[in-house]
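Morning - EPU inputs below, output right after.
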Amino acid sequence: MEIHTNIPLKNFVTMRLGGNARFMTDVRSIDEIIAIIDRAAAQNLPFYILGGGSNTIVHDEGFDGIVIRNRIMGQEILSETPSEVSIRVGAGEQWDEFVKKTVDMRLTGIEALSGIPGTVGAAPVQNIGAYGQEVAETIVSLDAYDTQSKTLVSLSNDDCRFSYRNSIFRDTEMVRYIITFVTFRLYKSAPQPPFYEAVQRYLDEHTITIYTPQVIRDAVLAIRTDKLPDPKLKPNNGSFFKNAIIEDWQLTDLRETYPDIPTYNMPDGRYKVPTGWLIEQAGFKGKLLHGIRVHDKNALVLINESATSFADLASARDEIAGKIRDTFRILIEQEPLEI
Ligand code: EPU
């Protein structure tokens, strides 16, 4: 295991901003994870696990610790019945390559999560979700190294406490577990309507009435290409903010001024309001702030057009969030993790 010193993290995150990592290494096995964590503890250094860098933003001072890139690979079918398949996948595998493989196997469950950048191990951290699916719906369990007890553990879906764009891994148990493998349960049955509105529109436009994982994947990839900038060409983090979750009384208040406010019902009786809509209403769509462009096709996405520092990004973010707070009395939350 090679440990590199003073590595510019902007080359490893899709927003392409921020300072250096004091140390950086790739891990390919559980033994390597244990060795590097012991070393970090002995030197009293913090660590951070980096996947594809699409949901991490880096301060200008960089990270005074060890950045660990998880490269644990492998896929194994654990069990199969006439209706289901359980697959265990290494945390370092590319998420979309895994999705493609499951779609090629005609399995249903994660096809709407096509085209999401990043790794398999990062998917549960923020409970990736898109076009009507959340990864939490198909995760059975995951294996992790618990840096607190120094043991290998298996966490059930319930243990992970998944909710909208959240789990224990970015909340109460941040930097405790290092995810090594994720086990998914996928289905042999075809995808069932109702589909996400944009997906159904695509299917209708293409007169598709036979639903397979492949047609849903194709629809999602086409919609994403149209709405989301390619991070390889235009540095961005996908949605920079989470959608807002508001209470019943807040919605009643807001509807007096904004009768057309779009909302989605949450299972707990609250409402999700698209932050892209709020940002658009506040007049930011397409605008350039401190070198950061508010995407003209989806105001939830911030593109680093000419920003030179994390400070530029933070100024743009704070300006947008401040105006949303003053206009709608809603506090919006950033989606990427910050180191
Ligand atoms: N909207 C606007 N203006 C905008 C953007 C959106 O009015 O600039 C409105 C749309 O008209 C629509 C609603 O907001 O009524 C929702 O828009 P959309 O379906 O495009 O989805 P989103 O809420 O912007 C979320 C996820 C995306 C995911 C899509 C599709 C979050 C934070 N984002 O975006 O995830 O792909 O739904 O399911 O939940 C990501 O997390 O990086 C990401 C791209």
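Note: Residues 130-131, 196, 198, 227-228, 238-239, 242-243, 262, 274, 276-277, 280, 285, 298-300, 335 surround EPU (CB under 6 Å).

O.
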